Amino acid sequence: MTVLRLTSLLISRTLITPHRRTLLDIINKDFLKEFKLNSGNVRNSSSSSQNYTITEVKIDVPGGGVIAGKLWKSAGQKLTQTKPHPPIICVHGWLDNAGSFDNLIPLLMSPDSNAPSTFFALDLPGHGLTTYCPQVWYDAHIEALIAIRRVLSHFEWEEVSCIGHSMGGIIGYLFTSFYPNSVHKLVALDNIRTIQHYPLIAVLKSSLDLVFEVEEKAKLPPKGLKFDELVQKFYEGRKRQNPLSLEGSRILLQRGAIPVQGEKDL
Questions:
Q1: Which of 39, 55, 71, 111 could in theory staple to 51 by disulfide, Cβ–Cβ 3.0 to 4.6 A?
Q2: Active site residues
Q3: Are strands 118-122 and 160-165 parallel, antiparallel or unpaired?
Q4: In total, how many domains does the chain have?
Q5: Based on the number of CB atoms within 10 Å of its own CB, is 169 exposed (0-12), middle (13-18) or buried (19 or more)?
Q6: What is the C-alpha separation between 67 and 171, in angstroms, rounded?
Q7: Do 77 and 172 have their domain in common?
Q8: What is the pLDDT of residue 208?
Q9: Are 67 and 150 in contact (CB under 8 A)?
């Protein structure tokens, strides 16, 4: 119930704000005083009075770069905590970073095994210490969804809860729509309306899944085929969409195929 009361207060403050505010604006010293907490102790991760640890995490990304974030964990609690309180991923807003949650997470941490004890606040691509952001293309929402998938894979978390602020709330809704079985609960603070067209959600999810399927296939050793076999495979693969003749397939593959392990016929 503590989380619900806190969330309601945050939402009520945000709704009456005439312009967008960061979580650090909302959960400031005055806010902490209302909860009779010392803001200095809250932000000092080395304090002996605290029952949790804060660890900087960097997750390698295929093709180079990292996804960065801060892992908050109650002392003695397992990283793979499951229901009724799975790990909680915190997603910040536009132009913010994982530091947005520095004042909020300590209010939610609890040494109680029956309460939330593991939080991961990530820096979205293009924000904070995360370096992974394609130089020639960038879509904040898609890149964020991919980043969250990578976080779950890295920690081997099958299910999480999500707290999203502003743009992070939109991303939380999208991720929950794409992967409802992976999200236990969602809290959206100061969020904006997101996609509500279900067929489009299915198409976007399929495209997102394809990113990881291609990455897995790229890890496999190259499979060589004789040139005529490759032409036939290329021809058959294009029959359903964008069909091409066998001769056309042969012409394209003269520039679209490369030798593998010295096989001159490929």
A1: 111
A2: 166
A3: unpaired
A4: 2
A5: buried
A6: 16
A7: yes
A8: 74
A9: yes
